[in-house]
């Protein structure tokens, strides 16, 4: 199952980008034998300032055809790492070939795009900067693969 992180905004070189690359490399290595990965990040940017609607159009164009859609949204479901790992395994076991995690811009995700999502995931009721959400999602993907493989990374 290919994993796509599709996010509004460009992430410059720096510690966040290094963390994302590290965790996604670990996810790819750990997940390969489990049918998970590869993972890739796609960034979109609304240079004309068209707001949520324009961002939604860019995000929609970046989505792989037929991908299952999971949005990151503070109103979504808060899950434990074990629950997230289980959900990831269920998507894989149901034959999902492309799974897209969508991270919106400063104003969130357009309601029309949000309504198409099969799942909304929250990292808590606080609002997080998009760069930190990418880091946290990348780490949780690696943690989920480690949990599913029976690896020692996750200690609960």
What is the fold's blueprint, element by element?
Elements: E1 2-8, H1 15-31, E2 39-44, H2 51-62, E3 68-78, H3 81-93, E4 98-103, H4 111-116, E5 119-122, H5 130-149
Parallel strand pairs: 1-2, 1-4, 3-4, 3-5
Total domains, how many? 1
How much of the sequence is in beta strands?
A: 15-25%
| Spatial strand order of the main sheet | 2-1-4-3-5
CATH architecture label: 3-Layer(aba) Sandwich
Radius of gyration: 15 Å
Shape: globular
Question: Structural class of the secondary elements?
Answer: alpha/beta
Largest pleated sheet: 5 strands, parallel
Secondary-structure element order, as H and E?
A: EHEHEHEHEH
Mean pLDDT: 95
Distance between the termini: 26 Å
User: Based on DSSP secondary structure assignment, what is the total number of beta strands?
Assistant: 5
CATH superfamily placement:
SPOUT methyltransferase, trefoil knot domain
Number of helical elements: 5
Give the C-level CATH assignment.
Alpha Beta
What does it look like?
- The chain is of the alpha/beta class and 156 residues long.
- It has one domain (2-149): Alpha/beta knot (3-Layer(aba) Sandwich), CATH 3.40.1280.
- The protein is built from five helices and five strands; from the N terminus they run E-H-E-H-E-H-E-H-E-H.
- Strands 2-1-4-3-5 form a five-stranded parallel sheet.
- Strand 3 (68-78), helix 3 (81-93) and strand 4 (98-103) form a beta-alpha-beta unit.
- Helix 1 packs parallel to helix 5 (130-149) and helix 3 (81-93) packs across helix 5 (130-149).
- The protein is globular.
């Amino acid at each position: 199952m290919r994993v796509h992180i599709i996010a509004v905004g460009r992430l410059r070189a720096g510690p966040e980008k290094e963390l994302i690359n590290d965790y996604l490399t670990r996810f790819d290595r750990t997940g390969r034998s489990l049918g998970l990965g590869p993972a890739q990040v796609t960034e979109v940017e609304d240079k004309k300032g068209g707001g949520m609607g324009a961002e939604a159009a860019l995000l929609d164009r970046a989505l792989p055809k037929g991908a299952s859609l999971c949005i990151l949204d503070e109103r979504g479901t808060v899950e434990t790492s074990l629950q997230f790992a289980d959900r990831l395994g269920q998507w894989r076991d149901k034959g999902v070939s492309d799974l897209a995690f969508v991270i919106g811009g400063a104003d969130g995700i357009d309601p029309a795009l949000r309504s198409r999502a099969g799942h909304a995931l929250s990292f808590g009721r606080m609002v997080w900067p998009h760069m930190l959400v990418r880091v946290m999602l990348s780490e949780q993907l690696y943690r989920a693969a480690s949990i599913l493989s029976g690896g020692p990374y996750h200690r609960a």
